[in-house]
Amino acid sequence: MSKSITIIGSLNYDLVTYTDKVPEGGETMQANSFENHLGGKGLNEAIAVARLSSKQSTIPVRMIGNIGNDTFGKELKQALVEAGVDTQFIKTIDGVSSGVATILVESQSGENRILITPGANGELKPSYENYETYFPNKNQEGFVILQNEYPNTAESIEWIKTHRSKLNIAWNPSPFKPDLIKSEILSRIDMLIVNEGEALDVAKHLLSSEEIVAFDESIKQDKVKGFGELASKLTKLINPANINLVIITMGGQGSLFSTKNEEPTFEKSVKVTSVVDTTGAGDTFFGGVVVKLASGFSTRDAVKFATKASGIVIQKKGAVESIPLLEDIN
After folding, report:
1. pLDDT tens, 236-267?
2. Is residue 283 annotated as part of the catalytic site, yes or no?
3. 84 labelled ligand-binding
4. What does the entry list as the binding residues for K(+) (predicted)?
């Protein structure tokens, strides 16, 4: 059975300002520089998957999303085409702007703060007929990558798991939406990837107050051990039938992963000389993991590979521009 990797999500044009300090309310400051970059979690993930795939790969990479009938939209779609992503399901919406992300980057630390204007992404609400067109094969295998930068994440999860159960749903619940953190939704996904804060937010919505207190205390005593225990707990809450994988990313420390067949495992981050911009690092990590898993690699090898890829991203400016090619990793 042929496999595919399909990304459903956002395409944004990033407007990036670099500054020594983020201003407080009512404060005006002079920034260091301003740049335009292509982005959006969906676009970043799609391009990461395409660039990190082997040239000999027979697994097609497809993007489902919306753009506006504007210059930003044309650039966003062209970037996907150049990366080798199938864009037949990228829809142009008249009368609506393409999505825009306003990003503030602190020059010294590389930490970012992001404001998103959905634009055409807010109109991405596939119908039952749309999903049938996207996934015509009832026995389709592979991965569907999802995030929360479009309105119908829950509906996508419901349709795919009901009608195409062999597909692995890989979900990063970012930006965090509390109304989506429900046991019935989590039980239908196959791979959950979250950072430390998101992991705790998910736990607070699904676990008892006693369990939360216990995890908080464990994390204070030993961060890696505590988050490892939390990853193991979350693994039991997602769909056990397919890949069953939870990954918690821990910034400069590294990441943890847990499956139904593996104890929590910690992977150290790659040491770099300087952090320039963390934008797109998480999306690249996500894409790198999925590429390797879809190609039959072990979870540990997939995480190691993704760690190297994201380590390259943080040393350059921009999201799409900094995503490496497979040969850069090798």
Report:
1. 999 999 999 999 999 888 999 999 988 899 99
2. yes
3. no
4. 277, 279, 313, 316, 318, 322
